[in-house]
Amino acid sequence: MNIFQKVTGCLLLAFIGSQNPVIQGQDLQPLTGTWKNNNGYFFNWIDDDSGIFNFIRFQLAEDGKTVSKAIEGWATPPNQAGLSHRFVASSSGRHATAYQTFDGKELRVHWVSQGKAGHERVELSPDGNSMVANGSFDLNEQGFSMRDLGDSATSTKLPDSNERAYKNFWGLLQDEAFVMPDESETQLFDARLQPLLGRWQSARKDGSLQLEIYWRKSTLGKFLYESYKFYDELGNLTATGLNISGKDPYSDRILIWGNNAEAFTQKGGWDFVGDKTLIQREGDWRLIRDIKDSNTITGRWEQKVAGRYRKAKDSVPYTLRKLHSNQEATVAIEGFLSGFVKAFADGDLKALMKHYHKDAVKLTSRSIDPLVGKKAIAADFAPRIGEGQLKATLTRVTRLTPDHLMGCGEFQHVGSNGEVMATGQWGNVFLLEKGRWLMLQESAHLLNLGGIADAGTHSFQDIRETECSNPSTAAFTASETMARDYLQGWTNRDPEQIVNLFHHTGTRVVSAVKGVTKHHKNLRASILKDLEVNNNPSIQEAKLDAITLGATPIGGNLVMAYGKWQNKTSDGKVSQIGTWGNVMRQRGDEVKIILEAAGNYHPD
After folding, report:
1. Does 173 score more than 60 pLDDT?
2. DSSP letters spanning 143-177
3. Could you give the percent of the chain with pLDDT greater than 90?
4. CB atoms < 10 A from the CB of 461, how many?
5. What is the C-alpha to C-alpha distance for residues 272 and 314, in angstroms, rounded to an integer?
6. Which residue in 288, 293, 296 sits closest to 270, CA to CA?
7. Nearest Cα to 486, choosing from 521, 510, 467?
């Protein structure tokens, strides 16, 4: 581990190496979810990697809709004595620390801020769907105000509450259950830190992911939140932590607070050289970040020796690159689709092929095998380009790396007379090359809601007789691990086993289920539908099999892979066949599905 990783991650290395943060964090699991009381919302969740318990509380104005105040806080996983340490920040610009205990039913919080102290007790109902708070505290311009212990406030868990409650936040905001203040009222407390906002990645020379950082505004702009994660060359998480920056209410300096194994402490502060150089101080160390442009930041460590800062021994400069925002990604893919469907309608094969990368892979219901390379893809389009129009809608966008986007949606092929000739769904990977977004992997399959029930009398070649292209690479091994575990869950007819293979941001686009499916709750329903089709008593029970034909790392710890799948009847006959194109996140031996895109062969 070089000094770049060592210094930033030192606060958590002992914690990560000595205990399982996720298991520790499960002690607070009953508190997760989204809660509503008379004048606000609580959003509570546990970070998978660090075990940190996160909570955001919104207080609504007198109109009952506009957010007027916000409190955000973080609690360390409980230690052996069951004690967690909290750090709390407020939209008043104040901060506080606290200790808490939770026994599965009652939460007790003991807090202190600017010389004041208090106590809060929260009791969960037996069914875990409501909680009553006594002695709750509020961070405001004067510090703390507090209800008497005899007063109480009841909060109720929302029926559709997600254990990662920030997902409910976006849904409620979209449904206008509450309204955030105008952007002009929530500016970041110091404009010099504004360029940091967003998601960033740093890669090694071999392309493997070394560092991820996520910066965002906290508590309506009064604090800056930073989450960082370090990885080794195999994708294993080696250190993770968070920093909170805000103005000291007394000195007006910008301070940094961070977490270690059992507490949150003040660890440093910020200095600035103009508006392009940001210096993060931590003890005798400082991290100098130079903003090269809106999407690039370079960093280097220095150490104070004999009163002067010098380049840190073994320190390796690094570069952070910014992932596109959701809005930028949506605009990029929608622009791509617009040009793609126009080229098809115009019958312009040359213009259409400019949308594909030279190494593109196309997986489609029309072809029994994957189409690899622009020549094969052009041959597939040549006989039918210009026949009617394509209509494509974008449903979901995922930012994979600074150079890769994932998009999912639906399409129709409409004839010249307006008749819908085909309906299907797609899940594609796009690559940014020389300023243009190109299709790198396309998976577009016709809807087949009957599933295996309409397999007919076809008899296909067994996919196990197909030759694989790169079976010795780590990316190929990751894909085969995914396929093995997926098939095991399918054989067991266990939707939970399959759902757990998906990352919490995972998406499923398959021909047997209409629509683009996301979130584990909906993924479970989608997989259940597939399993029910396979258990149809009118057909022979099918045995699912799948192989990987190609797998490529696409930056960081992500793998893009494609292959073929088949269903065999109980007598060993291959009755149904198709292709798939997936994206996975690899961390050492763990593989999680980011995208499952698959469909059956349907040449008509």
Report:
1. yes
2. EEEE--TT-EEEEEE-TT--SSTHHHHHHHHHTTS
3. 66
4. 11
5. 25
6. 288
7. 510
Tokens of 413: 């092929």
Q: Show the tokens assigned to 200.
A: 């960033």
How far apart are alpha carbons 212 and 176 in whole angstroms? 32
Decide: 276 and 267 in contact? Cβ < 8 Å: no
Identify the residue whose tokens are 């202190």: 112
Which residues are paired to 199 by β-bridges? 214
Query: Which token pair is 10?
Result: 């030192």
Long-range contacts of 20-26 (CB under 8 A, 24+ apart): 20/51, 21/49, 21/50, 21/51, 21/52, 21/77, 22/46, 22/48, 22/49, 22/51, 23/51, 24/51, 24/77, 24/78, 25/51, 25/52, 25/53, 25/77
234: number of CA atoms within 13 Å, CB side?
8
Measured distance CA(219)–CA(499) in Å, rounded: 34
Find the length of the chain: 604
Average model confidence (pLDDT) for the chain?
Answer: 88
For 66, residues 6+ apart whose C-beta sits below 8 A from its C-beta are 60, 178, 179, 180, 181
In tens, the pLDDT along 343-387 reads 999 999 999 999 999 999 999 999 999 999 999 999 999 998 988
Please tell me the distance from the alpha carbon of residue 258 to that of residue 229, in angstroms, as a whole number.
Answer: 14
Between CA 197 and CA 165, with CA 406 as vertex, the angle to 5 degrees is 55
Contact 261, 253 (CB under 8 A): no
The answer to whether residue 189 scores a pLDDT higher than 90 is: yes
Return the number of other C-beta atoms located less than 10 Å from residue 549's C-beta: 24
Q: Could you tell me if residue 574 is left (phi over 0), alpha (psi between -120 and 50 degrees) or otherwise beta? A: beta
User: Which H/E stretch holds residue 56?
Assistant: strand 53-60
Report d(CA 209, CA 400) in Å as an integer: 12
Give CA–CA dist 473/102, Å, rounded.
46
Q: What is the pLDDT of residues 554-595, one digit of tens each?
A: 987 899 999 999 988 777 788 889 999 999 999 888 999 999
Report DSSP letters for 535-547, one per residue.
T-TTSPPPEEEEE
Cα first-last separation, the chain:
56
Which one is predicted more confidently, 97 or 145? 97
Cβ neighbours of residue 177 closer than 8 Å, sequence gap 6 or more:
none
**What is the C-alpha separation between 576 and 59, in angstroms, rounded?**
55
Task: Tell me the H-state helices in 20-80.
Answer: 21-25
Residue with tokens 């797998």: 551
Chain segment 273-297, per-residue pLDDT in tens? 988 999 999 999 999 999 999 999 9
Give, as one character, the DSSP assignment of residue 181.
P
- Going across the sheet that includes 558-568, the strands are 517-518, 502-510, 590-600, 574-587, 558-568, 543-553
